[in-house]
Predict the structure.
Amino acid sequence: MKVAIDAGHGGTDSGCRSVLDGTFESHYVLEVAKLIEAILAPYVDVVLTRKDDTFISLRERCRDANDQEVDLLVSLHTNSATTDAKGYEVFTSRGTTRADQLAKNLASRHVEAHPSQRNRGIKEAGFYILKFTRCPAALVEFGFFSNPTEAEWLTKESTKQSVANAVAMGILDFCGIAKQEDDVLTLEDRVARLEEHLGL
């Protein structure tokens, strides 16, 4: 099983910024993508559409995922609005597709792990990354960087780990892979695993 994790934006396209500390969406989602990679590595082959702060076009991301024949793709983002909007949401392609189940698995795990966060639901959209990958693909918005309270929560190390774990668990659910109970690690254990995986 081969899974693509797409850290949105990158390079000259930084995405939105936290209203609290200026954290770039592109930096945040890359960090979460690497946490997800570390969690999934014992179970599936993981492909990152970008591994550093580099701009990669949507066309390139889709082409690379298709060329590598990945079995699914999850694109990671944070949201922004001119209002006080907040909450988690996940997008799937328009119409009835296998991506619908992937979106349901991702949403279920996220809501289960973060019951106090507003759940904005599962929505259909014509986003490029959803339209032009041949595999089931979903796009998650972890929350709003434009909302001070949510931005503060999102950038906590514990939150980064918990949202990463929720994505990983949703992917494993979709793949029909059971996560071993003894793989429930502390944050320190996961950081050590990530550092080992990255050769740090």
User: Anything to note?
Assistant: Residues 157-175 form the longest helix (19 residues). Residues 2-198 form a domain with the Aminopeptidase fold (CATH 3.40.630.40). The radius of gyration is 16 Å. The chain has one domain: 2-198.
